[in-house]
Amino acid sequence: MMDRQQVLDVLQTVQDPFLHKNLAETKALKQLSADGERVALEVALSKQDKVKQMQIQVEISSKLKEKGAKAVSVQFTVLRNEEIRQLGGFPVKLPTLLSPGVKTQFISVASGKGGVGKSTVSVNLALGMARQGKKVGLLDADIYGFSVPDMMGIEKRPAIKDERIIPVERFGIKVISMGFFVENNSPVIWRGPMLGKMLNNFFNDVYWGDLDYLLLDLPPGTGDVAMDIHFKLPHSKEIIVTTPHPTAAFVAARAGAMATHTKHEILGVIENMAYYKSKKTGEIEYVFGKGGGDKLSDLLKTDLLGRIPLTQPEPKPGILAPGVYFEGDPIAPVYDDIARKVINKTTK
Ligand SMILES: Nc1ncnc2c1ncn2[C@@H]1O[C@H](COP(=O)(O)OP(=O)(O)OP(=O)(O)O)[C@@H](O)[C@H]1O
């Protein structure tokens, strides 16, 4: 039976192809199990490179077999940034969402004023798109009024791995919120440059991985943060949320005007709290007025993507996520329909 020392002796003769040190020196052996003549090991290299991994796998495997092993399995992992630095190497910076060649599409969800349901729409649109098979991230950039963690019932906080922030995953959506970085729900009073820095961090220091879409829940109105995002993300597309009152549409039009100014394509308008349908009689009441969505989409020369009625989400037993319309909720198909439209409009 192979022992650890025999394996280390072999690793001493195999080089990490990037650090030019042998795998015993780099402390590459992360796991080892030997069962009779079968050996399974996990080896950490300084970079992930499929071709080099295959070469090393063949090298280790044949050398261990020369020493008597019958079957060898080699799994690969990557050394921690700290380990790489200690060994004199330079850790590879993983790509960010702003790196060249990254295909993620940005969609900002904006509104003219607060309280129209922009966060509710962002969360449920993200879920709707995920139900259509898309890989979706959600950035709660509503720096003063973050509400996504509460709406989705997120209690976990992001982990830090290799100096990158790992988003919290909830219902298949990768989420980052300003709320994760604020103690005891205290109000955020940062301004100007601090805020810009925070947003940069959200793009550069968060490891979002491979995403089809990143939805951005913007702060209401046309303030600093909204402006900043508009300029920072030249390719972002926009969805504008309004309530059905015609005057609300005028207010929302300002957010639309800013998108036009920064040459962001407006994908469409969503009218939230459009009507109330009585569960008992089926009668429809236009509690907050009528026509705002149509008016705004005409004004912005775009489509009305959908009308969402006034309804509280149906709670799902055992899951606390008060802002989520889960599959099976009568409102979920409305979001699915909007999600499909958004995907069609952004798929060439
Ligand atoms: N269609 C709806 N039916 C019933 N309640 C809704 C609907 N949409 C949103 N709400 C409720 O309205 C309130 C405001 O919604 P939300 O926080 O999504 O708005 P917002 O525009 O993001 O607000 P802010 O910009 O102030 O953060 C929340 O309590 C939310 O649960």
TrEMBL record:
Binding site for ATP: 112-119
Domain MIP18 family-like: 4-74
Gene3D superfamilies (UniProt xref): Fe-S cluster assembly (FSCA) (3.30.300.130), P-loop containing nucleotide triphosphate hydrolases (3.40.50.300)
SUPFAM superfamilies: Fe-S cluster assembly (FSCA) domain-like, P-loop containing nucleoside triphosphate hydrolases
Alphabetical GO biological process terms: iron-sulfur cluster assembly
Any one GO MF annotation of this record: ATP-dependent FeS chaperone activity
Claim: Iron-sulfur is one of the keywords in the record: yes
UniProt KW keywords: ATP-binding, Hydrolase, Iron, Iron-sulfur, Metal-binding, Nucleotide-binding
PROSITE patterns to which the protein is assigned, alphabetical: MRP
Subunit-structure text: Homodimer.
Functional description taken from the UniProt entry: Binds and transfers iron-sulfur (Fe-S) clusters to target apoproteins. Can hydrolyze ATP.
Family to which the UniProt record says this protein belongs: Belongs to the Mrp/NBP35 ATP-binding proteins family. In the C-terminal section; belongs to the Mrp/NBP35 ATP-binding proteins family.
Name listed for the protein in its UniProt record: Iron-sulfur cluster carrier protein
Originating organism: Sporolactobacillus inulinus CASD
